[in-house]
Amino acid sequence: MPRETHEGSVQCRQEMEVHGTGRSCCGKYAGAGPCVGPAVLRCGSCGAPNYCSLDHQMAHWRDHRQECSRMAEQMMRAGAVHDFPFSFAEDTTQLVDVGAITVCSFLENCDLHLKGLWKAQCDCASSVEEFATPSDWQLPSRMCPCTDACQLSESHMMDWASYYSWRSLPLESPVALILHWPLTLYHAFCLIWKHSSTFRANVERACVIHYLGPEKELDMLEAFSELLALLPHRHVHIDMIGPGVSASRDGKALDLNEYPKCLDEDCLCKTSRGSGVKVRGRVTIKLWRGLYHERYSELETSPHFIFAPNAGLAAFPSWQPTLRLILSSKVPAIFTDYCEEAADLALRSVSPACSSPPTHNVQLNPFRQPLCPRDKQLNLPTYSNCFLFGIN
Ligand SMILES: [Zn+2]
Ligand SMILES: [Zn+2]
Ligand SMILES: [Zn+2]
Ligand SMILES: [Zn+2]
After folding, report:
1. What is the pLDDT of residue 155?
2. How far is the CA of 285 from the centre of ligand 3 (A)?
């Protein structure tokens, strides 16, 4: 389920029409004719692909036989992938997955549908948001991180539970649905930090990140101000480059010096200088329309690391020139994907061109989004930014 990072993916998305169960038949392009009904059968060995009929299952076996045992192992690890501490997790993972509720109805129940930062969580709003109106949380103060945090001790932030505890958020707060973007970026930073002493020395005062293929997060950029709390005392600059950047936003820059606000009138976030301004650094974002290798020469600063969320490296040949550029740059790069299989295939597709082994093998992202994506094709555990790996 690659995102529209590179050309070709629009067509891919159109092919993902869903049937009653929210799943499509994996055998429909295997040359055995059109589907005969909803995809109610599963592979009996791994349980990952769905089929409309035994005919289509048999036709697909030619392709599936190479991946079946691997997917069986991934399915056995599903429990850990589906494990979230949130009180709403069953709603946004299982119930959304089986189609019992939708993201829209979940947000409506929270009184967040089409509001503030939540507008981009579903497709009901057209993506026309510009920088002019800063988005806020639309939540009471106790439910969202709208003011500064106490100093973070690096070792204690390993997962959503420790993040929520550090930010004094109750586990019913849905902010993780949005904050998985900056938290995953922070996690990538920490992985490289632990791995490379050169990186540690270079990013003490400033950190430049090249962020490839932004999409939904373009409509919730204010959420990246959480990096003020996560990576304090530095200037974090993010160049976001991708075809998802609209022509009207190409070249636009954003300076994030405060957190999205809460609903409470008397909260500290409403005073012009909330507490602890001095501990903060600065977060800036600049948007670039196009593919990385096409815009690279125009980018003003070389990056300390490269981050490509939900990249779909193996799915899109158009990644190849970008990958060659990344490999020759020797800059640490972290890629995420929707499921373990996609991350595995991606790492296997880049490994032959790498001069050294991966810096980070395929691993579960503790800050994956606790929301089942709608266009899920297989029954493999699948979330935005679910698995990641690193090279260079
Ligand atoms: Zn079929
Ligand atoms: Zn199978
Ligand atoms: Zn909606
Ligand atoms: Zn507030």
Report:
1. 66
2. 27
Cα dihedral 66/69/73/79 (nearest 10): 90
Ligand 3 centroid–CA 102 distance in Å is: 8
Give kind and range of the element (H or E) at residue 93. none
For the chain, what percent of residues have pLDDT higher than 90? 74
Q: How would you list the strands of the sheet with 360-364, edge to edge?
A: 253-256, 282-289, 235-242, 206-212, 305-308, 333-337, 387-391, 360-364
* Inter-residue contact 212 to 5 (CB < 8 Å): yes
How far does residue 9's CA lie from ligand 1's centre (Å)?
Answer: 22
Q: Which ligand is nearest to the CA of 39?
A: 1
Distance from Cα 116 to the centre of ligand 3, integer Å: 13
Measured from the alpha carbon of residue 143, the closest ligand is 4
Judged by its nearest atom, the ligand closest to the C-alpha of residue 147 is: 4
User: Ligand 2 centroid vs 42 CA: distance in angstroms?
Assistant: 8
How much distance in Å is there from the Cα of 57 to the middle of ligand 1? 8
Supply the pLDDT for residue 131: 45
Cβ–Cβ under 8 Å, residues 308 and 262: no
Q: What is the 364 CA–ligand 4 centroid distance (Å)?
A: 32
Q: What's the pLDDT band for 3 if we cut at 50, 70, 90?
A: very low
Beta bridge partners of 363: 388
Give the ligand whose atoms come closest to the C-alpha of residue 32: 1
Could you tell me which of 231, 277, 276, 237 has the C-alpha nearest to residue 257?
A: 277
CB 55 within 8 A of CB 46: no
Ligand nearest to the CA of 33: 1
Predicted confidence (pLDDT) per residue in 29-79, tens digit: 888 899 999 999 999 999 999 999 999 999 999 999 999 999 999 999 999
pLDDT in tens, 233-285: 899 999 999 999 999 999 999 999 889 999 999 999 988 655 444 557 899 99
